[in-house]
Amino acid sequence: MGRSERRTQFRPYVPVWQKEVVSDIAAQRGLPIGDTARDIVLEASRCPVILSKLAPYFWRPLVRGDHIWPGHADRRDLAEIISYPYERCERLSLRMTSQELRLIDDIIVALAAPDAHAVAALFILGLHETQVVRAVAPMYRPRSRYAIDRRYERWVSSIRR
User: At what angle do helices 16-29 and 33-46 cross, to 10 degrees?
Assistant: First the structure.
């Protein structure tokens, strides 16, 4: 991929905890957060499990290999996946080339949603699917919920007697 190739930028809002997970995966891979997020989206677009989860939101049918997901006139709203009304959210910036965008174009058409919404839905569902995360970063192990986050901990000096 040359520097002169034009890239399309997407900046979906994601919960802070999802952005932290992506930054952990990116640090483990040694790549920027945007590249890791793009890889998650592309891997999610190839995963039949995720496409099956997206199937109720399809307006037009989607055909991938041997799988066919029919479209629905009374489809569900994609905002159910991409909106988190009670959580603090931040923007996640990722860029895709026109070739990478063509790989997910049929999903965008089937969803009949803006490109950014489709990318956000693929990212969020891909991050929840262990198969996708393992394909992007095979050695990644999530943090334990019992681990101490030392960035926010204040150390108090011992009392001198």
Answer: 100
Token couple for 160: 């001198």
Burial class (CB in 10 A: 0-12, 13-18, 19+), 38: buried
pLDDT digits (tens, 9 = 90+) for 103-123: 999 999 999 999 999 999 999
* Cα–Cα distance measured from residue 54 to residue 109, given in angstroms and rounded to the nearest whole number: 13
Q: Strand 7-10 relative to strand 94-97: parallel, antiparallel, unpaired?
A: antiparallel
Contacts of 156 (CB under 8 A, 6+ apart): none
Cβ atoms of residues 122 and 39 within 8 Å: no
Residue of 111, 117, 120, 106 whose CA lies nearest to 58: 111
Residue 156: pLDDT band with limits 50, 70, 90: very low
pTM given for the model: 0.84
For the record, the structure tokens of 145 come out as: 């919920």
The CA-based angle 10-13-17, given to 5 degrees, is 120
For helices 115-128 and 33-46, give the axis angle rounded to 10 degrees: 90
